[in-house]
Amino acid sequence: MNAHALTALKLTGIAFGAMSLGLLFMGLGRIVSARIQRRIGPPFYQSFIDVIKCFTKTSITHNFVMDLGIIMALGGLIATAFFVPFANFSVLGSSSVVIVLYLMSIGYLGMAMGVSASGNPNATIGISRALALMLGYKIPFVMVIMAMILTYNSSDLLTYALAQNHGFGSWHIFKYPLGFIAVEIAFQAMVGEKPYDHMIAPAEIASGPMVELSGKYLGIGFLLHAVQLYVETGLIVNLFLGGAQTWYIMMVKMFAVYFTTMCINAVMARYRIEQGIRHLWIWAGSFALLQLVYTRIWG
Amino acid sequence: MEHDNIYLTNLRDEKQNMWTGLANYFRKRSMWMLYYCTGCGAIELPPTMTSRYDMERLGMGPMATPRQADLLLITGYLSVKTLKRVIWSYEQMQEPKYVVGFGSCPINGGIYWDAYPVINHLEAFMPVDMSIAGCMPRPQAIIDAFEKLMDEIQQGKAVGYKRYRKHYDWYKRNQDLVLNRQSAVLTPYVDPFASMPTAAELMAQESEDSHV
Q: Fewer beta carbons within 10 angstroms: which end of chain A, N or C?
């Protein structure tokens, strides 16, 4: 087998692995929410059942752009997953955090294009909220990443992960505590959990972008969220939690990040959209700015 | 609960192969519902969903739009105006889809049986896969009905959506009878379904079709 075929095989493995891990996390997250609400909750494989069921249903498409947008969103997010190092391993050899941030946006823009084409006003409101929120969390996130780039003169995620390999004390969570708080707040908005679930808001705008997705499109929507979880938790583990040498340590750390998110999600209510962006800019933004200034002057 | 309803036709002995059996397993373990809070049945759903009876154990959960839902819950009486919206919602849902009628009102009108704006037999307007008797059914009865529905889905018996497609002209005529009514509502009651083909005739037609 030549090298290219092997790489393609590995990339396919990463794509399916990312979806499966994300779906597993979604199932476990539902159990976490259920236990906080003193319920039993679904089995941990419930999200797999949901997705497979979605693919057995009939579905409605509104036009070609809707098909294209949904596939573009999934493609964009899977392409992002290729660049996130999993347990100090990156198939493509490079894992620049700038590329990750750039490709992640393609996923969201694809989703925006696809669901806007469905013509439902709720979907358009949901997308405009999602893009407004993106403005809220991307700025603190990029400021923290700029602090790291200033320190290491590199934008490579693997470099950051390897720099934290010297034991517990070398983790960036202790080196950049303010940055970690900022990113944790931004992460809550990135995955769209409460208090930043404006774009989904089932009781308010009928699940926003998902409103017209039926059957197989809804299944792809779930897979999108799964890959998104893989990418974003992987990003935080590599940036702050010391990366990982082995795959199971990586999975445990990724789940720890998601677990925190689900715990906050279970006890919070939803902000209004302008409150959400103000909160992100004032709190996450000022923590990130303090971290950037601190790193620039004393770092 | 037995399906001995007069409107029920016999589409259930369709051949099941391995793939539909497998698909039915996933369908029964992940029913997403759209609940149409038309009547008092809606008040029984919060305890069914939350920590006391926890419906999510069965993989069930509420969904925001008809496009995403598999299960339409008619929770109580249906007025003629509401019926129109329920039919729109039902037709927007993607197949396979199931309908559950809550309480006595969708079965025979319940305490509103002689009220002029309320329809009495939901079965005449859309296919109902499961009816829960009671006024109102308690959460235990609701969970029981859902488990029964899961069995029927697994066995390929919950095929109301196929019945709706096959007998669409019959359902459509029934719907038009009440939705496009021209006469005053307080005129002496005339059974609008008297001129309809009877259930026996429909069954006969059905078995003729299945022989072909």
A: N
Number of neighbouring beta carbons within 10 Å of residue B21: 12
The CATH number assigned to the domain holding B71 equals 3.40.50.12280
Count of domains in chain B? 1
Which residues of B have a CB under 8 Å from any CB of A?
Answer: 23, 26-27, 29-30, 50-51, 54, 56-57, 59, 62-65, 67-68, 70, 94-96
Q: Is residue B105 part of a domain?
A: yes
Any B CB within 8 A of A44 CB: no
For residue B6, tell me if it sits in a domain: no
Amino acid at A240: F
Task: Tell whether B107 is covered by a domain.
Answer: yes
**Residue A170 touches partner B, C-beta closer than 8 Å:** no
Distances (CA, A) of B64 to A205, A207, A242, B68: 9, 6, 40, 7
| A207: contact with B, CB 8 A cutoff | yes
| CA–CA dist A253, A230 (Å, integer) | 11
**Cα separation of A78 and A84, whole Å?**
10
In a domain, B186, yes or no: no
Which residue in A52, A56, A207 is closest to B65 by CB distance?
Answer: A207
Residues of A in Cβ contact (< 8 Å) with B63 = 202, 207
**10-residue block means of pLDDT along chain A (299 residues)?**
82 88 92 90 91 89 87 90 82 82 85 85 88 88 89 84 80 86 90 84 78 87 91 89 83 91 89 88 91 82
A260 interface with B at CB cutoff 8 Å: no
Q: Which residues of A touch B29 (CB under 8 A)?
A: 46, 49, 53
User: Residue B26 sits in which domain range?
Assistant: 18-179+192-211
Q: What is the ipTM of this complex?
A: 0.80
Tens digit of pLDDT for each residue in A238-265?
888 887 788 888 889 999 999 999 999 9
